[in-house]
């Protein structure tokens, strides 16, 4: 478990689909971190783990995240998933 502190600079429209385990929903948010050298980080909210209605553009948050990589056809993909947000 890790945390990222920053503000939301972009909210990406949700994407929905159907998988072998049923329907899913994913929405991504672009955060800009704090500090002397801010970084932009894309964080995914899967199946409304966090209420996306509570997240506002330009607001600052502390986001609890899990980082996960997976292999698909010998290529590795890394995703940052949120599971808790505090203002």
Describe the overall structure:
Strands 1, 2, 3, 4, 5 and 6 form a 6-stranded antiparallel beta sheet that branches. It is globular and about 40 Å long. The relative contact order is 0.28. The mean pLDDT is 94. It has no helices and 6 strands. By secondary structure, the chain is mainly beta.
Question: What is this structure's SSE topology?
Answer:
Blueprint: E1 2-11, E2 15-19, E3 22-33, E4 40-46, E5 60-72, E6 75-86
Antiparallel strand pairs: 1-3, 1-5, 2-3, 3-4, 5-6
Features:
87 residues, mainly beta
List how many beta strands DSSP finds. Answer: 6
Q: Evaluate the radius of gyration.
A: 14 Å
Biggest sheet character? 6 strands, antiparallel
Helix content: under 10%
Mean pLDDT: 94
Shape: globular
Number of helices: 0
Distance between the terminal alpha carbons, to the nearest Å?
18 Å
Q: DSSP strand (E) fraction?
A: over 45%
Which stretches are poorly predicted, pLDDT < 50 over at least 5 residues? none
Q: What is the chain-wise order of helices and strands?
A: EEEEEE
């Amino acid at each position: 478990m890790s945390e990222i502190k920053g503000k939301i600079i972009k909210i990406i429209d949700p994407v929905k689909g159907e998988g072998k385990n049923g329907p899913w929903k994913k929405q991504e948010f672009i955060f800009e971190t704090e500090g002397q050298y801010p970084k932009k980080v894309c964080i995914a909210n899967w199946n409304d783990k966090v209420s996306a209605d509570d997240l506002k553009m330009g607001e600052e948050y502390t986001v609890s995240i899990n980082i996960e990589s997976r292999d698909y056809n010998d290529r590795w993909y890394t995703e940052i998933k949120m599971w808790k947000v505090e203002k």
